[in-house]
Design a protein that fits this description.
The structure holds two protein chains of two kinds.
Chain A: E1 4-11, E2 25-32, E3 37-41, H1 48-56, E4 63-68, E5 71-72, E6 83-86, H2 98-108, H3 113-126, H4 142-154, E7 161-165, H5 173-190, E8 194-198, H6 201-207, E9 210-215, E10 218-223, H7 225-230, H8 235-240, E11 247-250, E12 252-254, E13 257-260, E14 263-265, E15 280-284, E16 289-292, E17 296-305, E18 309-316, E19 319-326, E20 335-340, E21 345-349, E22 352-353
Parallel strand pairs in A: 3-8, 3-9, 6-7, 7-8
Antiparallel strand pairs in A: 1-2, 1-4, 4-5, 9-10, 11-15, 12-13, 13-14, 15-21, 16-20, 17-18, 17-20, 18-19, 21-22
Chain B: E1 2-11, E2 14-23, E3 29-33, H1 40-48, E4 55-60, E5 63-64, E6 75-78, H2 90-100, H3 105-118, H4 134-147, E7 152-156, H5 164-179, E8 184-189, H6 192-197, E9 201-206, E10 209-215, H7 216-221, H8 226-231, E11 238-245, E12 248-250, E13 256-258, E14 269-275, E15 280-282, E16 290-301, E17 305-312, E18 315-322, E19 332-337, E20 343-345, E21 351-352
Helix pairs in contact in B: 2-3, 2-4, 3-4
Classes of the chains: A alpha+beta, B alpha+beta.
């Protein structure tokens, strides 16, 4: 196992990329420390699958290098990279027993049968598959099969990284919870580097210690789940993470004070000095919007029941401001005022957190 | 009005749908909520006329339509695996049902334009399906189902293959799309929160049976049995066996609480208690609720919420709370059960003590 570094990676599927949009990956630098839990999070087309394919060796990048430890493996074929992959649809040999499925990667590499047996039992115990070892894999549920896919990656001692590509997408919600916490538990127990690729913020945020948010072939922010939630560096991150996403409201800045529709709004970072003509916006998550006796006047236009939360849609003029309240919290009828928690209200200039710039 | 009357569906020796009586909310949003293989798709196929009931009838607008083929019912369908005509443009895909219905061209243009605008497809109308992302293809299939004035619209997990954020947007948009129409919508999903947010009626399904049908919020908060409570909880509801003794409910030798209200009148004996994770919170000094001591199994922190899995009396319990709560694996910690939100079930699963 080793640290994995991606240096100045660029990739285009076109022969002669010219425009910015021709690049599936624009310029990516990334480092995965040995034993870390990482997530690559972004919508379809953000470049996360391209990145994964470059690391696994299915695609050679147009530019840049992939390093495992100090070794440049950019030109190495997939089978010489010692990477285990788990895909959206479980890959199992239906006619084989669960035991033989787990033993397959070891036997394939000529590992002695005396070593196969204890290793398979060890991994089966970690995954709660022990009672099923003799069963045929065909009879297992979707989450059971996905555990086998994962187990086949874990069973090898020589794996550099386990890459999980949307591993829970086809799993029912109640099984998802179980498998997700199992994954997290596994990571903490075996300490193998894991990279989890998904479009689902919940999965990324609950699994990973570091989440890499990608958008249009670029990394827009890397951080802990708490950093991404509390301090998005870009309005895209604010919108993409959180459900509903961050409110992004047009504002003016004058004398160091941000104003939304004429109402002064205290923020954590407002300051003058934005370029003339730059787009200035306020970002505040629905979790930090509260009803108050005074503040920004709004109309309550919709209250949605989300179980443990209520999502309240309010409008000031045509601008929607959403608030997230507890299940039984009172909601004013029709006309009300809202206020924002200044600690979690921030100014964005041309999409980027003010004072941070867009130097990624 | 769309209704199933004593409908049974058997295939060989297996019963896919047990006897079902269901009157859908006319002109409203009806959600079928259940896990994979609970019977949602079979119910959809019965409603569409794609398969026939082994017993019972399907009624629509006061007519028995059992046996009426799908082409003769004014039904639109969208499935999880979206289907488009690969050789037609997005525009022609959406327009196809209107052409079949010989809609006048001006009207056709207006309606295709309107629905394309609503679903964010307006800039893509000239493309072929193969040139679209998965989300765009699914929206094209949705647009085609929505563009004609069907009496019944059947949506079988239409958002399951879409990106999380796209799903969030469409989930909000869909009820609005139908708000000013008179058609009856039936929408299948595996996700409890989706059922709630679509804000209509929900039928919960388990193993081929409809366990409850009513306004979604009411079914969620007031389930008639354990199966319904389990189907309608995400994260899964915590359940444990309790013993009622006189005016006390006992979870274990050390942990118990008073049986409030009509609960006290139940016969003594074993019951199952259900408590959703957001009513189990890490305890602080002075926390309300019944304190329990749990051994931490794993903690998941989502940025705004913490999900803590812990062992209590040999069972895994889950706590879901605001903010960041860090615990070490194996550590013992105190949790407070908000027992006012406990649901109680008799050994046969029926809800008691309401």
């Amino acid at each position: 196992m080793a640290r994995i570094q991606l240096e100045q990676l660029r990739h285009s599927y076109l022969a002669r990329p010219a425009a910015d949009a021709d690049w599936a990956l624009k310029k990516v630098n990334m480092q995965w420390d040995d034993g870390g839990a990482y997530a690559l999070l972004g919508p379809s087309g953000c470049g996360k699958t391209t990145l994964l394919s470059i690391v696994s060796g299915l695609i050679r990048p147009s530019a840049g290098r992939v390093l495992f430890g100090d070794v440049d493996i950019t030109d190495r074929p997939p089978d010489q990279r010692n990477i285990a992959q788990v895909f959206q649809f479980p890959v199992v040999y239906d006619t084989m027993s669960v035991f033989d499925n787990l033993a397959f990667p070891l036997r394939n590499r000529g590992v002695a049968e005396t070593q196969v047996e204890p290793r398979v039992r060890e991994i089966a115990a970690l995954l709660d598959l022990e009672p099923m070892l003799a069963q045929r894999a065909a009879g297992l549920t979707a989450d059971g099969k996905q555990k086998i896919s994962l187990g086949r990656g874990l069973v090898r001692a020589d794996v550099n990284v386990i890459m999980l590509d949307e591993p829970l997408t086809v799993i029912d919600p109640h099984l998802k919870w179980r498998l997700r916490s199992k994954l997290k538990e596994l990571h903490q127990r075996i300490g193998m580097t894991m990279v989890y690729v998904t479009h689902d913020q919940n999965e990324a945020m609950t699994f990973a210690d570091q989440v890499v948010v990608m958008h249009e072939g670029m990394v827009v922010q890397t951080g802990t789940p708490v950093e991404l939630f509390e301090r998005p560096r870009h309005t895209f991150v604010g919108h993409f993470i959180g459900s509903p996403g961050m409110n992004v409201l047009p504002c003016d800045v004058e004398g160091g004070v941000a104003r939304f529709a004429g109402n002064p709004v205290p923020t954590a970072n407002a300051a003058d000095g934005a370029k003339r003509g730059a787009r200035t916006e306020l970002g505040v998550r629905p979790e930090f919007v509260r009803f108050a006796d005074s503040g920004i006047p709004v109309r309550v236009t919709q209250v949605s029941d989300a179980g443990r939360n209520r999502i309240v849609e309010t409008r000031h003029g045509d601008t929607v401001i959403r608030a997230l309240l507890d299940e039984h919290a009172p909601v004013p009828a029709d006309i009300a005022h809202v206020g924002f928690d200044p600690q979690f209200t921030r100014l964005y200039v041309d999409g980027w957190l003010a004072g941070e710039g867009d130097a990624a | 009005m769309l209704a199933l009357r004593s409908v049974v569906r058997r295939v060989g020796t297996q019963t896919h749908i047990h006897e079902t009586n269901l009157e859908f909310q006319a002109g409203g949003f009806n959600v079928l909520l259940g896990t994979t293989l609970a019977g949602k798709t079979t119910l959809m196929q019965l409603l569409a006329g794609l398969v026939q009931p082994s017993a019972g009838q399907v009624w629509f607008d006061g007519r028995d339509v059992t046996g009426v083929p799908v082409q003769k019912r004014n039904v639109s369908m969208v499935f999880q695996q979206f289907i488009n005509y690969p050789n037609l443009s997005v525009y022609d895909n959406i327009a196809s049902p209107l052409r079949v219905a010989r809609t006048p061209i001006a009207e056709l243009r207006r309606r295709v334009g309107h629905i394309a605008e609503l679903l964010g497809l307006a800039p893509l109308l000239k493309r072929r399906p193969a040139e679209l992302s998965g989300g765009q293809q699914q929206r094209t299939a949705l647009a085609r189902a929505l563009v004609k004035d069907a009496d019944v619209v059947l949506l079988d997990e239409p958002l399951a293959n879409l990106d999380y954020k796209l799903r969030e947007g469409l989930r909000e948009e869909l009820p609005r799309l139908f708000a000013d129409r008179s058609c009856t919508v039936v929408y299948a999903t595996t996700e409890p929160v989706e059922a709630l947010l679509l804000s209509g009626y929900t039928a919960t399904l388990q193993a081929g049976r409809v366990t409850q049908f009513g306004p979604s919020s009411a079914v969620y908060r007031d389930p008639v049995d354990l199966a319904t409570a389990q189907v309608f909880s995400d994260p899964p509801i915590n359940t444990a066996r309790v013993e009622k003794q006189g005016r006390r409910i006992r979870l274990s030798a050390e942990v118990g609480w008073d049986a409030e209200g009509t609960l006290g009148n139940l016969p003594d004996g074993p019951y199952t208690v259900g408590l959703r994770p957001h009513h189990v919170l890490p305890a602080q000094a002075g926390s309300a609720g019944v304190a329990v001591d749990g051994k931490i199994l794993i903690t998941e922190i989502s940025g705004s919420e913490s999900v803590v899995h812990f062992n209590l009396g040999g069972l895994t319990w889950v706590s879901l709370s605001h903010g960041v709560r860090r615990f070490a694996v194996g550590e013992h910690a105190r949790f407070a059960l908000d027992v006012a939100h406990c649901l109680y079930f008799a050994p046969d699963g029926a809800r008691v003590g309401t």
